């Protein structure tokens, strides 16, 4: 009897049945893959923070600095047709996660020389709009040894205030002024805003050497390491504009004579002041009386500092007999006035707002070569390339100025 042999051949019915089974299996497998992918994606938590910052333009900043016509022309096209406006909401989202914010914006990677560590600088920032510009200003001047006081205008938007609070929350050496003012243009509250920050800065544990006041449309022309080197050369002197008043400016404060027979001088709101000077000012009865008198004057911030720096005996005194120190002689701020362009400095390549030039990218070389420490005004809605290229050139100058073997890195 022969053993049974199973045949490998299938009938037509079996073939169809097998094919349908395979088809169903494939369909089920595809469905599984599809829905398991969805499940997997749903199980991964969505990012808590939008890490977008400011838009970076494809531009050669070295060519801009060297005034290469093709690249300058490209920056003009961007300015006229392709500006991407800063999204303030992104800053709020980013500062909701401080460790991520510090990492993304490079605060964790800041390295400084011992010279910088031993020479902290204080900043009084009186600001009211453009939160990303304020953040970029802090980042461009940043050293973990410095201390930053932010005074935001009480009239500022809720979003702006929240953004400033976010910066103060995430950066350990940044804080909001303890007293905030409703700042009025050319009014006493503009002066008071800086004074509030100065008072707070004196209470800080950071024993800063000099204090510099800035507004939201200022930008540095020197990296911190270079600024420290230049401030040291002042040797306790102060740096600010102080001039004999013109007839026009005398009209701002001629109603009643100042107390203590103080001789009046005029200048600007911008200053670089030694710690000793601020300590003296904060405790002087003469300065206190003079400050009270300025409440009845127009734009007191433009004669308060210029006058008290000339008081006999103040630390870093500028003698009354000393010739005028003009805005071009003082390194505190480089400002282009429309009515002086073509005579004292080149014409503005940006736009004018109330006779002040909002700088264009074509002025980067001139700005960095003039010798001033800060410039005003910048607006990324006017020319974003100007700010972007200044950031890049300042980073280059910082690297050139620092020696690698003596750096101390601070990680957040």
Uncertain parts: 1-10, 13-49
Alpha-beta classification: alpha/beta
Radius of gyration using CA atoms only? 30 Å
The biggest sheet, with number of strands, parallel, antiparallel or mixed sense and barrel status, is: 6 strands, mixed
Number of discrete domains:
3
Q: What's the helix count?
A: 16
Proportion in β-strands: 5-15%
| Strands in their spatial order, largest beta sheet | 4-3-2-5-8-7
Shape, per Cα inertia axes: globular
Keywords: Glycoprotein, Glycosyltransferase, Membrane, Signal-anchor, Transferase, Transmembrane, Transmembrane helix
Family: Belongs to the glycosyltransferase 14 family.
Pfam family, one: Branch
Pathway: Protein modification; protein glycosylation
Question: What's this entry about, in short?
Answer:
The protein is of the alpha/beta class and 412 residues long. It has helices spanning 12-43, 61-65, 69-81, 88-94, 98-104, 114-117, 131-141, 158-170, 188-203, 224-232, 247-250, 275-283, 285-294, 304-308, 364-369, 384-401; strands at residues 111-113, 121-127, 147-152, 174-176, 210-215, 218-220, 239-240, 271-274, 334-335, 351-353, 356-358, 374-376, 407-409.
Attribute tags:
single chain, alpha/beta, 16 helices, 41% helix, disordered N terminus, signal-anchor, Glyco_trans_14, glycosyltransferase, transmembrane helix
